[in-house]
Amino acid sequence: MTPLFKRLAHRSALFAAAGLLAGAAQAAYPERAVTLVVTYPPGGTVDVVARLIGPKLAAELGQPVVIENRGGAGGMIGGAVVAKAKPDGYTLMLDASNHAQNPALHSKMQFDTLSAFAPVSLLLRVPNVLVVTPSYEVKSVGDLIKLGQPDAKEPVYFASAGPGSAQHLAGELFNLLAKTQLQHVAYKGGGPAMIDVMSGQVPVMFASMGSAWQHVKNGKLRAVAVGGLERSKTAPELPTIAESGVPGYETYEWNAVFAPAGTPPAIVEQVSQALAKVLKDPTIAEQLAGIGAEPIGSTPAELDTFRRAEIEKWQRVVKEAGLKLD
Which residues is 239 bridged to in the sheet? Predict the structure, then answer.
């Protein structure tokens, strides 16, 4: 072999070895614990979901999954933490519907939602449910539309967890599509809002089925209709708002996992596939059904398409309703 061929052969061997080492390094992920930043406080639905899937995800990845709550500002505090994290797959984010609603509501954010995060998986969705005080005269969506007309003698109030919350926007979407003028009453959290609806202080709420359904079952709230385009498996007897006279109405509270932008696609895909396996676990599916959740487990591309559509939808609603939080 000539000296030139020897040098070329040596170089090829080096390149091959480097490729094998790179492949081994990539295949080794994860080599240590993975942190799952939950953008809401402990005890809420998002936190419950994280603690349900965390142990199963750890088993799939072969490393511990540490749940870290960074709640506040409708998910933006936790989002800022993850947006600045090293994009190596060891920091992930479990976020909710406000991920797509905040860009429409806030002109000043610490990050750009679309460019700061790599989509991993849409985990689940929970349909909103229109609930009322049990003694309230509204028995159907049609009843609410009649009472909520702009020229009505008495205003109809609906409660929410706060300005810009998922429940608030669900009510504003109803106003736009049903041409009603329900009046918003903001609370400092979903819990206090629901307590006042149960007691009759405020008669209406577009609540998450996950938080409201137990109160419906024990008679403290009456469910009128669900916000999904299809009837819920949790309550198939309930009509949808869309089929009850408000075509096109669709609201869900959803949970999804994201990674910092720049996370290697192979790692994103590995985590996405692991989450899909977790959501197919019969025990997890049963537990999620208990809070009215519909497991999904999407691909990264499917989540990207979904979140872009959601951002566009809520920008339109916020603009037409004249809402702004800053």
Answer: none
CB neighbours of 225 closer than 8 A, spacing ≥ 6? 129, 130, 140, 141, 238, 239, 240, 241, 244
Element (H, E) at 100: helix 98-105
- Quick one: tokens of 121? 């998986």
pLDDT tens track for 3-19: 443 443 454 445 444 44
Q: Judging by DSSP bridges, how do beta strands 204-208 and 34-38 pair with one another?
A: unpaired
- Interstrand relation of 222-226 and 294-295 (parallel, antiparallel or unpaired): unpaired
Rg (CA), the chain: 23
What pLDDT is recorded for position 1? 52
The region that residue 122 occupies, defined by phi over 0 for left and psi between -120 and 50 for alpha, beta otherwise, is beta
Dist CA 295 CA 284 (whole Å): 9
List Cβ neighbours of 293 (8 Å cut-off, separation of 6 or more). 49, 124, 125, 126, 210, 255
The mean predicted confidence, pLDDT, of the chain is: 91
How many residues comprise the chain?
A: 326
Average pLDDT of the segment spanning 26-42? 89
Cβ–Cβ < 8 Å for 159, 196: yes
- Name every residue whose Cβ is closer than 8 Å to that of residue 191 and which is 6 or more positions away in sequence: none
Q: Around Cβ 99, how many Cβ atoms within 10 Å?
A: 23
pLDDT bin (cut points 50, 70, 90) of residue 27 is low
Query: Given this model, what pLDDT does residue 233 score?
Result: 86
272-285 in b/e burial notation, b at 16+ Cβ within 10 A?
bebbbebbebeebb
At 223, list the tokens.
Answer: 């469910």
Q: Tell me the helix, strand and coil percentages in the chain, rounded to 5.
A: 45, 20, 35
Q: What is the pLDDT of residues 193-250, one digit of tens each?
A: 999 999 999 999 999 998 899 999 999 999 999 999 999 988 999 999 999 999 999 9
Structure confidence by residue, pLDDT tens digits, 43-68: 888 999 999 999 999 999 999 999 99
